[in-house]
Amino acid sequence: MKLVFKTIRETVRDNIRTPWGIWLAVLSGFLFVALVAGLSVFWFGLSITNLTDLVPWGLWITIDLSSIAVSAGAFSLCAGVYLFGLKRYAPIARTATFVGLIGYTMAMLALILDIGRPDRFWKSLVYWNTHSLLWEVTMCVMLYLTVLLFETMPILASFEWLRKKYPRIAEKMESVHHYAPVLAIIGLGLSSLHQSSLGAVYGVIKARPIWYKPEMAVLFMFSAIVGGIALTLLASMLSARLTPKAKVNDMLVERVAQFLGYMMIGYLYFRLWDWLAQTYTYEPGRTEAFELLTKGTLSFNFWFGEIIFGALLPTFLLLYKPTRLSPLWRMLALAMIVGGVVAFRFDTNLVGFLTVISYLPGKAMISYTHYTPSFVEWASGLGIIAYGLLAFSIGVKYLRVVDHRITSEEHETVTVSAGETVQA
Amino acid sequence: MMENNISRRDFIKLSAVGLAVAAGVRTITKVEASEGAKGEHQWAMVIDQSKCTGCDQCNLVCHAHNDINPDLEWNKVLNAGEIDGKIVYLPRPCMQCEHAPCVEVCPVGASYYRDDGIVMMDYDKCIGCRYCMVACPYDARSFNWEAFTGENPAVPEWGEPEVERRPRGVPEKCSFCYNRIDRGMAVGLVPGVDAEATPACCVACPTGARAFGDLNDPNSNVSQILRQHPSYRLRENLGTNPRVYYLPVTENRVVEG
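Structure tokens for the assembled complex are given below, as produced in the milestone run.
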């Protein structure tokens, strides 16, 4: 026993001064605080949060929605690679798949904190109300998480320890990549369903006019795809700068970034029509909620988080060649897109709750309420993000999650070898 | 009763077949159920705002009979403004909507319709996601943010608990005192006529501002009142079709009691 402690102590001492050690230490710190916060939520209940009957969904739902949204790179890039035949982008799809798996498990963690009866989580799989969008989302997310597990099998198989100790299992896991096109089709179907349904979860709520619109589903779907691709590219580029374990082919990244720029134009187009449709005529509740976004407490988030830095500026940076070619500007633009999607989810969720519509007759009394996440919500929420970063870092270090040289291994039909220049 | 016309054996056979079919067409039956099944009775409540004095006694008996945490409310009594210098009150139970948004959004079917129109909560099935609270246009649901463990301050002064206390982590709401209706009808009482079979709030109201009865019965007091007086329901534009009707305060209708 003493020896074990000694080994641990020595390993820590050897690593603590390296950047990797410091990074792990920081993340562990967040995870430890989150563990305490999470356990106290389970022990004391949701009363220790700042959630109320008026604002029953808060920061955790934002984390849940955002981590699912930024996981959308997995299905969109896999569809591009395996269905549309853009095989040279396979290594980026590999990264996206791993990001997706992390994102969905993050969402699961946020949900288990958020529901009032975490002990009854299984009931959502057993008892079905097929009329409920949340039922559809639950089913799709569970099934898609399974698909993602299969899709990441070949990645997990590249773990050195597993290869050495259980080569046959590793080989079996590796061989799952033969089914990549089939998995991509299933993944595309399931993701298209639930990414948009997450928007429809809000879109069908007639009681809250700011949400009650069909374009909620379209906006959630569109923003998820841009956010997902942006995070995948950003994570790849950042890893390549920080560790020699990650290798990116900048030309591939740059091409996808340009495509992302055009996607952003499409996203802005939908946001423009959404905006016009909401300002055109007065609608009790909707207009007041929209004013909360554009002039009220959420206006900073809306204008800077969602529109200017979240969409307009990064679109320009990705479409203007000199800034797109500069890795720094490109990374900045990608980070802003991810931030924009998170801000969109945060604002969309809150605006419907903060605008309280009276049901009293005769007058359209509309008042505003407020919500600030409690320390427990922040601590556990940041812990979930820390878990995501930790999982990705481990993936980069041990599973070659970001390695654009492994094109040929990943899919047999591609004949590009490591040294060859890829034709863009 | 249907069982009287068929033998026990047939009933069991039918049940077995029914179960098998139900398992197969579960999806279809679920969708139909969400349209709001129509049973023999359709319970409704009529609240006369000209009689309501805002005394809050309905709320207190509600807390006692349903064993509700004092921090939570099933039957909020709201100040709805003034007419001729007098405050107008609006007591708000669950509207028991025919097209209830809470039932439609619940992912596990913990909120469901009874044949008599009452919107029920299965507190054992609920996972506490709070989507029903998000969807309810009337703010009729209160969440158990913490466990209600202490003594109920409304007991015994305002009545004795008739239903089980809800656990931490689920939302709860008014049930039209379905337990009183069921127990009363089982011994041949008529809800809305006999106090034992009528929601506690309607029985307790000192000014008789609340009437309860069957909309399917043209002679029930709610049917008669609704025929004789103009009434309204809350947020009718949403199409939820609430079963709680309000008689508004007008200049001709003098405040009594």
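Helices of chain B lie at 8-24, 26-33, 57-65, 101-105, 131-135, 178-186, 200-204, 221-228. Chain B has a mean pLDDT of 87. Further analysis is deferred to the final report.
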